[in-house]
């Protein structure tokens, strides 16, 4: 019994999709002002996404390296070089008072 319900639901979804697509194609082929605006905005969106994609291909590693630097800790990220079994408080307790240097 549930198989017929699933088939009915699926056929309704396909019918509504075909109806929407045929109406969309009819509007697309019409020379209407709203269709022209939609075409312009859609083209702008596609060109922007392609430009972002190529910019990321070219500059992606540079941007990634700016935010995720490897090596010693500091102002711009990274992790300090401490012994793995000591916490930050324990390793700093044995050292003399450190001052901030720029």
Automatic annotation (TrEMBL):
Matches recorded under Pfam families: T_cell_tran_alt
Subcellular localization:
Membrane
Q: Which GO terms describe its cellular component?
A: membrane
Q: Specify where the region named Disordered lies, as residue ranges.
A: 78-102
Q: Would you say which domain of life the source belongs to?
A: Eukaryota
Q: Which InterPro entries match?
A: TCTA
Name the chain's protein: T-cell leukemia translocation-altered gene protein homolog
The record's similarity note reads: Belongs to the TCTA family.
Q: Which UniProt keywords apply?
A: Membrane, Transmembrane, Transmembrane helix
Source organism per entry reads: Cyprinus carpio
Spans through the membrane: 36-56
Q: Which GO terms describe its biological process?
A: osteoclast fusion
């Amino acid at each position: 019994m549930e198989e017929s319900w699933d088939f009915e639901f699926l056929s309704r979804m396909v019918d509504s999709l075909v109806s929407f697509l045929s109406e969309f194609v009819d509007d697309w082929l019409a020379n209407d002002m709203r269709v022209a605006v939609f075409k312009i905005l859609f083209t702008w969106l596609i060109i922007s996404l392609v430009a972002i994609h190529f910019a990321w291909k070219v500059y992606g590693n540079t941007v990634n390296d700016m935010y995720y630097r490897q090596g010693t800790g500091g102002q711009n990220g990274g992790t300090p070089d401490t012994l793995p079994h000591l916490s930050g408080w324990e390793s700093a307790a044995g050292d003399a008072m450190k001052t901030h240097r720029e």
